[in-house]
């Protein structure tokens, strides 16, 4: 038992790679101010974009909690359709049992909500499913419109969150842009109602691309990867809450994390477990480089198939060409700064070894690498490209550069993957 007045936490409450940070959260004031302003502006539709693992969802959840705002969430995939996205939203609204949980004290509003809830419930129950060998299609009833969804969300004061908007097809992106426009129009009449899109770095551009009228009606919030100082703060705060000493490994965790909170939390969590730390300790315990090495080994081994598959897919040569484009481009990224390189910097690096390499090849193959459900590289901001995971960069270095830039421990780990 801990002493009187000292709180006890489980290690998975402090280092949270698979859930939103709560107890061990690093405040990013500029981002919080932007989100606050957006939520305070009635009718504003919001796009939160940035690299996977940078903290987009955590930022949104904390600000919604600050405003006591409820929400429903729809998760998008490459197979999502306009109909399936609307269905998911109405399904969740139906599950909330709006008429019972809305407590406004206004009988007219409650009656209105009840009528809509009954209509939606009956429409959902009446939907038919048609089966084929490949998929099951649900037919969208005419009653389930974006206008009705916006009205019901407005009455309940809920926000609709669409996760991974960037994954859907261009056709569906066009429809979603139109939904945002409908929400803006409904907000002008019925009060505050909004959609928040969470997606990759190009998400904001895509909304304006598919409906230019949205340019002045959307607030764009870019969530960059964490700085080394912010990652270091995650480890420092976690160490205090668990009463452990991670000073020997903090710099190494930050370096391996490459700005991604998820990786930082995962390595810290596994290192603590390796040191026998499962909750706040009575006496301070040191988490050593050996504990971290074991954590890195487990992380790499658990994702070895993914690392190999992503690399092989990126460098795949379907037919003999003059240039081994995938290998050349990834090699240039490996040799450059881990924060990423822009198009001109990549060309400069490539032409040192391949003077006649065409700029058009670089553009074409960068776009091909990006056009994937789970790409090996990401676009950072408006111009830079970097590996989507720090260990993908290390693995690519191992495969392309012969391990010359890797420490011995990672070399041995990647050799074991290839063997």
Describe this structure in words.
- With 419 residues, the protein is α/β, with parallel strands linked by helices.
- Helices cover 53% and strands 11% of the residues.
- It has a five-stranded parallel β-sheet with strand order 2-5-6-1-7, with helices on both faces. The chain has a two-stranded antiparallel sheet with strand order 3-4.
- It is globular, with a radius of gyration of 24 Å.
List the helices and strands and how they pair.
Layout: H1 11-14, H2 29-40, E1 45-49, H3 56-66, E2 70-75, H4 82-95, H5 98-101, H6 107-126, E3 129-131, E4 136-138, H7 146-156, E5 158-163, H8 170-190, E6 195-199, H9 203-210, E7 218-222, H10 228-242, E8 244-245, H11 250-257, H12 261-274, E9 285-286, H13 289-302, H14 304-315, H15 325-335, H16 343-353, H17 359-370, E10 377-380, E11 384-387, H18 390-400, H19 408-418
Parallel strand pairs: 1-6, 1-7, 2-5, 5-6, 8-9
Antiparallel strand pairs: 3-4, 10-11
Helix pairs in contact: 4-6, 4-7, 6-7, 7-8, 8-9, 10-11, 11-12, 12-13, 13-19, 14-18, 15-18
